[in-house]
Design the sequence.
């Protein structure tokens, strides 16, 4: 018998997966700022330059539009570039290439040339990086047909979803989160390939559904454990994929629990929760006992000062409060 | 075959291609005005020699990326005129199955990897295509290279500079060919560029540049070939500036009132198509009769292209989501406006 596998960090899971895919497929190359000699701003690519050399682990100048676009062109010729952008914020410099080109080339040219590439970057605030370095703009990409946008919340998903993304024939935006890199979890050995476009019920419950993704999943699970102590049963749906969106998964959950709260890292207006809520209006209207509520970031450029940052970002206390409000509104007693 | 005869055949074929492009664009202009063609429509009128010279330098193994002014490149790279016209008509027989239109000619088999509608948008992907070639193949006379065509106005956008820098530090087999038709829409090169000698703009990246008369297909071919050879064999990127002129407005609907009458007259006097014709007649490469035959043939081909496009089927609304993704994915949206969301019970 093997011993129980040791939990590893989300960071390690990404590093292991990049190594495995570089080993498996010579068409896989990595591109990005400081991914080689510096070993990655967040050390996701540690050791890979030494192992695979500068042709395959390619440091780029600070030129996001240039190197993201170059990855698109390389993908058109059949390479499978995995691009690291230091944070989501800097992806805005490359947005013309991502939205006007990466997302369009396959469909606009009549399905002749796929663009198999991955663009990885962390979103997330809470590190006192101030307004320009703390944004959660995943819906900008999730809005765009032609892209696939995925956001794993656990080391196991990080592995299986990154593997799937690299092997996928479309451009995949792979959203990480600064707050997740050091989180740990058990990762199954051997090849794991997730199905992109599927959500997961990560905790079953009967009284209320929390719908969330990425960092929010960890918060929701923690809050659900606390409510369980009071005899209140929360179901947690981890969206995992923002485009395509697995509407069926959370609609079925809410039809069962009759109550829904969305926990999202982005700003409230026009955010992920807006899409979820509108879907629930259509798929679960007759099942709902209370209006759907959203727990999202305060709509300000995120300030540097810690008390202001804490006030602006959604956390477990915010979620727990809103869950109680929804339960109370429906006369729920455990 | 003697070199002279071979040259004569080559020159004749350049003239035939130039005439085909000229005829095609004149008819496209008519078809646009008859509402057979929608959207934007940018013509290569006046740029035929540049287009044909560049395409003559390109080999089968090479890759091409262009701007949205791309009909001539599509034809000279070998796309069927009927399928190019069908693309303009938005028909399912078009080179991009009617998904792209005038600005987005594409043929993967011919390595024509797209006309691009966003100014500068093609430059980073073209650079990446060169990266893929460099990654996969070794430099040498048979190696592939990339030709990235762009307009004069494009040399002011960041993507141009970022791409040249990448090509220089990574030593990529690519030639950036600026078609300098003197105007970015209505703004002159001098008004828009701190360095209006555009071929010098590679200097910051130690990329050699050269300016060539874009009205002479032979000069264009020779200069492009020399740079492509450097790219294939030495992995030395190059920057070529072709001095050209568009005879009409920026697009079909632009009356080009920002140009003076004398400017237009000068341009018309230098029209490369009749100029090349006269040159070939004078050199005895073509007879008047042979020239007319070429011109009649072009007229016939373009007429057949229009008929093919007219008779081709429109894409069906049921095909709307056919190219949503290259790889199927669960939960991909397929709702038409007003459709209920697709959610399983």
Sequence:
């Amino acid at each position: 018998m093997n011993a129980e596998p040791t939990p590893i960090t989300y960071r390690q899971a990404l590093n292991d997966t990049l190594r495995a895919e570089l080993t498996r497929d010579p068409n896989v190359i990595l591109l990005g700022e400081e991914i080689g000699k510096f070993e990655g701003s967040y050390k996701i690519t540690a050791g890979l330059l030494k192992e695979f050399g500068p042709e395959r682990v390619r440091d780029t100048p600070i030129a996001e539009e240039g190197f993201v676009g170059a990855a698109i062109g390389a993908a058109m010729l059949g390479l499978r570039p995995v691009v690291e952008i230091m944070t989501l914020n800097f992806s805005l410099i490359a947005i013309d290439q991502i939205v006007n080109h990466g997302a369009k080339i396959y469909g606009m040219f009549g399905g002749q040339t796929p663009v198999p590439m991955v663009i990885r970057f962390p979103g997330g605030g809470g590190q006192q990086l101030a307004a320009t370095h703390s944004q959660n703009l995943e819906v900008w990409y999730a809005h765009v047909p032609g892209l696939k946008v995925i956001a794993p919340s656990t080391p196991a998903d990080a592995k299986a979803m990154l593997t799937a993304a690299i092997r996928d024939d479309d451009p995949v935006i792979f959203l990480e989160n600064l707050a997740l890199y050091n989180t740990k979890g058990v990762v199954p050995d051997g090849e794991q390939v997730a199905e992109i476009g599927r959500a997961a019920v990560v905790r079953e419950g009967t009284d209320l559904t929390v719908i969330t993704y990425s960092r929010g999943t960890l918060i929701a699970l923690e809050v659900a454990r606390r409510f369980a102590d009071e005899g209140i049963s929360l179901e947690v749906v981890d969206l995992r994929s923002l485009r395509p969106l697995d509407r069926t998964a959370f609609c079925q959950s809410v039809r069962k629990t009759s109550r829904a709260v969305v926990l999202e890292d982005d700003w409230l207006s026009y955010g992920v929760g807006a899409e979820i809520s509108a879907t629930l209006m259509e798929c679960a209207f007759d099942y709902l006992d209370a209006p759907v509520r959203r727990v999202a970031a305060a709509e300000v450029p995120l300030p540097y000062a810690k008390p202001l940052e804490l006030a602006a970002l959604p956390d477990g206390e915010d979620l727990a409060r809103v869950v109680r409000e929804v339960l109370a509104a429906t006369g729920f007693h455990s | 075959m003697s070199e002279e005869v071979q040259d004569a055949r080559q020159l004749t074929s350049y003239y035939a291609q130039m005439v085909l492009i000229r005829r095609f664009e004149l008819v496209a202009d008519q078809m646009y005005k008859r509402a057979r063609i929608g959207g934007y429509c940018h013509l290569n009128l006046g740029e035929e020699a540049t287009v044909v010279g560049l395409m003559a330098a390109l080999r089968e193994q090479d890759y091409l990326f262009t701007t949205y002014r791309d009909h001539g490149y599509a034809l000279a790279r070998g796309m069927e005129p009927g399928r190019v016209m069908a693309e303009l008509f938005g028909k399912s027989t078009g080179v991009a199955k009617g998904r792209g239109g005038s600005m987005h000619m594409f043929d993967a088999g011919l390595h024509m990897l797209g006309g691009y509608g966003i100014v500068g948008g093609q430059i980073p992907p073209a650079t990446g295509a060169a990266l893929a070639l460099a990654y996969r193949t070794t430099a040498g006379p048979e190696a592939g290279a990339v030709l990235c065509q762009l307009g004069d106005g494009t040399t002011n956008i960041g993507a141009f500079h970022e791409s040249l820098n990448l090509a220089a530090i990574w030593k990529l087999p690519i030639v950036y060919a600026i078609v300098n038709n003197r105007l970015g829409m209505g703004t002159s090169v001098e008004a828009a560029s701190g360095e209006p000698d555009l071929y010098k703009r590679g200097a910051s990246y130690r990329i050699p540049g050269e300016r060539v008369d874009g009205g002479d297909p032979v000069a264009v071919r020779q200069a492009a070939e020399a740079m492509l050879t450097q790219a294939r064999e030495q992995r030395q990127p190059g920057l070529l500036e072709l001095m050209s002129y568009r005879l009409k407005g920026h697009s079909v609907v632009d009356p080009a009132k920002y140009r003076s009458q004398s400017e237009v007259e000068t341009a018309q006097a230098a029209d490369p198509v009749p100029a090349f014709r006269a040159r070939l007649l004078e050199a005895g490469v073509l007879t008047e009769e042979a020239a007319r035959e070429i011109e009649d043939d072009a007229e016939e081909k373009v007429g057949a292209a229009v008929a093919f496009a007219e008779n081709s089927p429109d894409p069906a609304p049921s095909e709307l989501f056919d190219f949503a993704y290259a790889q199927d994915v669960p939960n991909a949206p397929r709702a038409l406006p007003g459709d209920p969301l697709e959610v399983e019970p």
Notes: Chain B has eleven helices and eight strands.
